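User: I'm writing a short report section on ligand binding and want a predicted complex to refer to. Could you take this sequence and S-adenosylmethionine and write out the structure as tokens? A short remark afterwards would be nice.
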Amino acid sequence: MPAERPSWAPQHIDLDKPNAARVYDYFLGGACNFEIDRQFAENFLTVMPEIELVARRNRAFLRRAVRFCVDQGIRQFLDIGSGIPTVGNVHQIAQQMAPECRVLYVDNEPVAVAHSELMLEHNPNAAVLQADLRDPATVLGSESARQLLDFDAPMALLMVAVLHFVPESAHPRSAIEQYLKALAPGSLFVVSHVSIDDWDGEQSRPGVPSYNQTTTPVYARTRQQVLELMAGTELVAPGLVWAQDWRADPSDDVDDKPKHSFILAGVGRKS
Ligand SMILES: C[S@@+](CC[C@H](N)C(=O)[O-])C[C@H]1O[C@@H](n2cnc3c(N)ncnc32)[C@H](O)[C@@H]1O
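Assistant: Sure. The structure tokens for the complex follow:
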């Protein structure tokens, strides 16, 4: 029997396979997910119980990185792979510090886009575009980008927990080069990425292969491979580190097992 479609679910989405955006929403305690996502998430939790912590640490990195960008004078954000809105979205964090901040969200998942549209209905300084990271021409040439972003001024380009959904065969570096080329000097590139570096023979432990059952398989990269994706930018301190260790606030959930962040995080500056 086909899965039942809730009234808020956009047409033309595959309800018979889990999807990373909605599974991540479930791990963060959100309600924008379907039975198929919840089943996958619950099974995944048995393989990798720390996944909820991973999601929270990634989200905490995103919050700190956005604040860092605003502190550095950045007032515009291009957030690609922005996800389903949840607590502490980029425009909320940035506009709380500087109300004039402008944010363009980009995601290729219809549920994420539909919910972002609802949230941004009355926010003239933020918009969402349904597009694919792998298609920089569409993103950079979009009407939304033209209206919201000034490519002559520094901006923050965010690819937070998204690049591990893009395999080498889709040439992520080539897409990144096109985005970086479009940015003004002084722009910041915010990246977080699933990595199994340092897992010393425990490589099956984090359950990455489970995501092959979803519409969004995960491709973990080594630290060196993530650094290569960020080439052309100069990493700000502390460099590319486990998410919990990137400029943690005293109130952050930090422990002595940083690799359990499972996500490497860093910010690079274009000179
Ligand atoms: C794990 S969520 C991360 C959300 C948010 N950036 C965060 O870190 O909290 C990954 C998001 O990337 C999106 N995504 C995956 N592949 C994408 C692609 N090729 N183009 C655009 N978005 C993509 C998914 O739909 C999902 O919403």
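A remark for your report: The beta strands are 76-80, 102-107, 126-130, 156-160, 188-194, 234-235, 241-242, 263-269. The domain at 53-269 is CATH 3.40.50.150 (Rossmann fold).
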